[in-house]
Write a structure and sequence with these properties.
Largest sheet: 2 strands, antiparallel
Structural class: alpha+beta
Order of helices and strands: HHEEEEHHEEH
Distance between the termini: 36 Å
Number of helices: 5
């Protein structure tokens, strides 16, 4: 083991040019505030919109969650186009989602949402399993509205980094 440790490559860094989405940090900050307010119950517990369990842990006194775009790579960025997901559901949503963006948008668009709607369920297939994304009525209505102006998917968008 000492020989392997001695032969390990040196830790080096290099400067690389990358593209970043302008305003992404601000949109994420606003989304975190919006989602915390929407999905925290009266006891102060924040819930995942997919597995519907409480978030796993806190960091600096706040429940930790991933802000994931409901439908990514739109022409316009809106903080309402975001989900509050636990780390596992976030990874499943990003890497194993089988439901296409158009189907997600259509399912949300087809929901009858009024001012008295408390919850909206949007079906999604993650890792071969049917799940339901829970939305508060307000979030669903807000999202439905902003997706009407967010535009179609961007074909030429660079890889986004968090």
């Amino acid at each position: 083991m000492a020989g392997d440790a001695a032969d390990a490559p040196a830790f080096e860094t290099e400067v690389r040019q990358r593209s970043v989405v302008k305003g992404h940090a601000e949109t994420t900050r606003l989304a975190k505030q919006y989602l915390r307010a929407a999905y925290t119950d009266d006891d102060g517990v924040l819930y995942c919109q997919v597995c519907h369990d409480r978030m796993l842990f806190k960091v600096n006194g706040h429940w930790y969650f991933e802000v994931i775009q409901f439908v990514p790579k739109r022409a316009k960025s809106h903080h309402q186009n975001a989900l509050a997901l636990c780390p596992l559901c976030a990874a499943l949503y990003i890497y194993t989602r089988e439901t296409c963006d158009n189907a997600l948008v259509a399912n949300l668009r087809d929901e009858e949402i009024g001012s008295d709607t408390s919850r909206v369920d949007v079906p999604v297939i993650l890792n071969g399993k049917r799940e339901a994304i829970w939305f508060t009525g307000k979030h669903a209505l807000d999202l439905k509205t902003v997706l009407g102006t967010a535009g179609a998917a961007r074909d030429d968008s660079p890889e986004e980094e968090a």
